[in-house]
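#onboarding

Welcome to the new folks! Below is a worked example of what a typical request in this channel looks like: someone posts a single protein sequence, and someone else replies with the predicted structure as tokens. Don't worry about understanding the tokens yet, we'll cover that in week two.

Example request:
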Amino acid sequence: MSIGLGLRGQQRSLAGPADTGTGGATGSKVSPAARSLPVTLSIPAIGLNVPLSQLGLNPNGTVEVPTNFQEPGWYRFGPSPGQLGSAVILGHVDSYLGPAVFFRLRNLRPGDHVNVALADGVTTHFVVRQVAMYTKTQFPTVLVYGSHGYSGLQLVTCGGVFDAQTRSYLSNVVVYTSLVATS
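Example response:
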């Protein structure tokens, strides 16, 4: 039903993504942005332009999930989008009311653009490298949250089969991106 159920159900501590050996997948050497609060997320390919909340950790060590189903959240204990390392933004796929903010995330393709406006006036521009789905029992914490020597942004939501008994999706969709520019 929501990413909250899936991530809480996993009971994992957070870590961070492994280097794919692609030099940021694009091979470009874009200077990382300074740390700044991300304020909006724009994904033109799926018609998304929304404000961002901030997320931390639950008492059990799992990542918090957004309380608003139409507003994704940035994991504030990691890099901000554009900094060296893996910034992570999480959002819900749906709820009992219908589609949520990341419902169309699974439709992204390599080459699609993702933009994050920061509080300092800088906009970070990313390109999608890969869209992957993992069962929650095989969630690649290090790939998603780890630092790999370049500026990445991972977008995470639930996906796959919905288990009505546990009221949770059995998988997560992860969109991997690399920084291509700042403006």
